[in-house]
Amino acid sequence: MNPIVLLVIVLLLLIVLKVPIAFSLGITGILYMLLFPGDVSAAGLLDKMIMGIYNYTFLAVPFFILAGSMMNTTGISERIFNFALSLVGHIKGGLGHVNIIASIIFSGMSGSAVADTAGLGKIEIEAMKKAGYTPEFSACITAASATIGPIIPPSVTMVIYGVISGASIGRLFLGGIVPGLLMGLALMVLVYFQAKKDPKHFPSFPAPTAKNVWENFKKAFLPLWAPVIILGGIIIGFVTPTEAGVLAVLYALILGIYYREFRFKDLQATLVETARQVGAVMLILAGARVLSYVMTLQRIPILLTNWMIGFTDNAAVVLLLINIAILILGMFLNSSTILILTIPIIQPILQKYGIDLVHFGVVITLNVMIGMITPPLGVCLYIASDIAGVRFERVLKDIIPFYIPLIIVLLLITYIPGLVLWFPDLLMK
After folding, report:
1. Quick check: 174 and 412 in contact, CB under 8 A?
2. Distance CA 336, CA 22 (A)
3. Residues 6 or more apart whose Cβ sits within 8 Å of residue 306
4. Which DSSP symbol is given to 19?
5. Which of 410, 427, 343 is nearest to 148 (CA)?
6. pLDDT digits (tens, 9 = 90+) for 310-332
């Protein structure tokens, strides 16, 4: 049996048996070492695991995760929600639109779909249920809007992609702005028509007064500056993406102290949760690096590139096939694992067809975010359904319509590269 076929079977079997993905990847690499000791030694395998996470830029990951968590524990999320409510709560679809706008704003601070769902989602879902929205819809719109988090900068997923591919993280951040706004607009259109069809379950609020909008804007003014400071610092060269993560944490801390909502006992819990999330991500990165190295030894990227060239010379078809493959993988693997496993294989294909790495980076980021709300994995959907107090199985039917606007935006940015590259080309020559 072909060694790669054997390893894939073993990996899939381990995943089916619910072995943690980091250990599944590591065990698969060790199996290869035992079967083919001449290709890689134990020391070489360990070296690959360490080098998989030994990168200065990866320091941005824990800082952005920590910043998102701190935003949630210092009352900033609630200020953002109230401001969004005063802006769009009166539109048909009410709190559905508020949910989306709040996620767009929060996206510019956290860079994490999980942080958005778990933190901001608690406020959103509680308010929606209290207003008369069904728990199923509340969970689905919260999970769907949270996918905007890693698209609008900053983005933990884009940092990981940039390190693996060598693409400019600053350009990736800028490239996500227009697609992120398109996602928000597309989701709001869907919510509007759902509300129009069933107004009973989509209550809206009275139109706010100018005074109400102004009061909520003043309360949210400082948090609204967070994305401007973070992204602006990167664009003008004041900070690197890694240093921007530190800046985000400091800004969240300053706001927490200023609003007098910062408590040391909350900080301890936040640090522990951040360490847990970062540890999981880094273990996956280390394990996936081993399997990626094995695939390189077996010349899989070269073989796949040659097969693709023989199959089609049309870059549009190649992008469609890659998108379909990533969407399927997103049903079973988390975003970090997908990037580590696929980018070394896909990158030679992208270069052969002249596909811009920044353009593709935003495309694959949106693609894997759709996986975050797609069962059987669907991490964000699990979190949102748990917060809403509804069984996961009950939200599966309600989440289906939300795939439509997200996939439409995915296809738009796939085949209209200018939607991604216009901003980076404008600001970062």
Report:
1. no
2. 11
3. none
4. -
5. 410
6. 777 788 998 999 999 899 888 87
